[in-house]
Structures are given as C-alpha cells and as structure tokens.
C-alpha cells in the first residue's frame, strides 16, 4: 500500500467504494487523513463501515471542512452531466481528484525521479501495459503494475528508485489526475469511444493528450501516429519541446520506431537500426499487437534497456488471458481464446491475424452485428454460431461462409476441433472471438474464456503451446 501523506491531518471525502475507492480510503487513513466514505450502493457503504471507516450521506453533510473529494472513475465528471457529488464539491470550492492524482502527489513528495510509466489509448492499453511490465521484470526492475488493468494504484508498493510503476489509465482516470506527470507517457491510438462520458471526440482526444503532455522534464512521450488525432498530438508536443518518439505500423518514419516485415526498426535521420523481431511470437500476432510491441519497445529503449534483453522479453511474453491467448494445440490445430473480442472491431484484430479459421462467434449481440467483418470472410473456413446472436450472424454470413448453428460453446468447440483436424491445413485455427457480449450465457468474458480454455484443454491429445 502507498500511504497518502499529502492530506495528513485533513478531512477527505471519498465517493465510490469499489476496489480503487476502498484502497484510497486505506491509503489516506494510513497517511494520517480523516476519511468520510460514501457510495450510492448501500452494500458498498456497509463494507466500508465494516473496514472501520466513517460513512455518511454526502448530500446532507457540511462540505466546509473537506480538503478534497476523491471520486471513483465510474462517476461522470463532466458528461452527460456531472455526478451530484461533483456539483456539491464545486459549490463548496473543493477539488475533485482521483486515486492516480494521489499517487502522483506522493511520488513528487517522496521519490520524484522514481520511474513511472503511464499508458493510454482507445485500444491495446492492457496488452501494452502487461508487455511493458513483463519487459521491466526481464530487465531486473522491481515492477509494480496496476491502474485500469486491475490492481488499484494505491494498493501497490510505494515509489522508489529501482522500482518502476507501470500504470494503465482510462480517459476517466486521466480526467481525475490534473497533475499527471509520468517519466514515460504512452498514447497508443485514438478512435471514437466513450463519447457518452466526454461529449465529443475532440474532448475525448484532449483528455487522452494530457497523459503525454504531462510527461515530466527529461521524460519521454511515446505516441502512435497511425491516426490523425495522434499525429496532431505528436506535432503539438514537439512544438512544446517534449521528447517525442513516434510509432507506426503502417508507414516508415523519418524519426521514431516503425514496423516493417515483422521487424521493429528505429529511425533517426538517415540512420536505420533493427530493434527487435516479432516473427514467430504467437502472443504478439497481428498488426494491432505489432503496434503494442513497438510502443513497449520504445518505452524499454527510453528506460535504457538493451536490445538483446528487449528481444528476450518479447519472445517470453505469455500474452494476456482471453486476448489472443493460445490455449492449446493438437496436431495441426491451434486453439485461440479471444473471448475479449466482444464487438466486431475487436474480433477484426483476431480474424486478421490468421489465414485458415474455424470461427466460434455469438453471444449477446451488439449494434451492427458482424456486417463490418465481410472483408475477413475469405479467411473463415467455417463458423460455429452460439447464443442469442446465432440467427442474426447466420443471416449475415449467408452463402459466403459455411456455418452451423452450434448453440452452446461446448458443442461449437467439439465441431470446430473435428472439422479443423480433418481439414489437413498446415495450421488450422479454432478461434473463439465472439464479436458479442457474453451476458446471454456467461456473466462476463473472463468466465466465457475460462470455459473455452477448460473445454479445449480437456480434449484428448491437446498439448500446451510453448
């Protein structure tokens, strides 16, 4: 835990008592603050009370003595309308911040030069974060990973030299961290997302930009420049004098890192040098993972990690569970769990990564279905449709893709494994990338992915992928 000493002797309101909120309560108390805990959920309030915290209805108490409101990222700060607690805080002149801001203040107070890597982007945040943490461990750092990827930032060990914090950040968390100042800031990409919470794509992009714009003096801003929003951001950072490393997987760059023929290349003027090779690394298949790997490699270089250590780290990266996770092989058949592919755009990344696919798809449908995936249909040898979306997906596939109505995941796996093995293809891939939510048959994508893994690994003759 990281004790928050910056509010010692003062009273702080904490609204939102889920994992990060309760961690904030503990960290503030450990640092000498008095905590008033609140939540719209009576169950969460009860848990905070059981943990020994004073709880109150912030609608009815006086705000005169509150030094700050620590807000959960789940509560809207601006759009579609500020949460009622935010309005209360503004009326009382109380600052509204989040747990990442508390971390940043503690780091500045106690270890301002301790390495702090912050990662954001519309897509690829979690994989890039996990990959950077893995690379740091391989390089010998005491590595603390958290934030949006799972562990609340204040539940990690405190900043110090020799210890690196690798933190995934959503736009909501950035919004609540006004003095965010990583030593390495990474913006992978920007596309339309979370407009309901930011109002416009312009505002969403501006929030994302703050992560790299805030990089501390002498630090490095790493920006993927394969979309127009990020290209403009990189140019603005250049004009402010920041050290900017541009990343591309689509085009060679005159200066920065780009991917060409499964190789990460570093360019500086007329000079070109090989940084690392991605060919044959199953956990980093596909153009999207090449972008993640290039960003992670740029971070490693900024941290002074040698290229041979970087290459070893890339090759040993196991990948994230439920994201292009290779869960087994039987003969010529590779089984891949991409249960995180809960919409068509996410499934497109997986479909683009393989040539001969026996595709398991379906679940609770989302707007647009799979109409945007027609360009990948030639890669699909056969589809196995499950859940509520099966009939809709069948209509979209029509005569263009052979398919069957499997209904449930276990039936789909058995049929796909049989057909893939009988195909005689050099590498047939049984791919679960549902392009749907899981809620019709599973509580979340993790449970669905775990079911896939367990069923596959119980098939006769299936061996782990090494």
Automatic annotation (TrEMBL):
Pfam families: Mur_ligase_C, Mur_ligase_M
Organism: Bradyrhizobium septentrionale
Reactions catalysed, as given in the entry: UDP-N-acetyl-alpha-D-muramoyl-L-alanine + D-glutamate + ATP = UDP-N-acetyl-alpha-D-muramoyl-L-alanyl-D-glutamate + ADP + phosphate + H(+)
Encoding gene per record: murD
TM helices/strands, residue ranges: none
Subcellular locations according to the entry: Cytoplasm
InterPro entries given in the database record: Folylpolyglutamate_synth_CS, Mur-like_cat_sf, Mur_ligase_C, Mur_ligase_C_dom_sf, Mur_ligase_cen, MurD, NAD(P)-bd_dom_sf
E.C. number(s) listed in UniProt: 6.3.2.9
Domain Mur ligase C-terminal residues, every copy: 322-436
GO biological process, one term: regulation of cell shape
Name used for this protein in its record: UDP-N-acetylmuramoylalanine--D-glutamate ligase
Any GO MF annotation of the entry: tetrahydrofolylpolyglutamate synthase activity
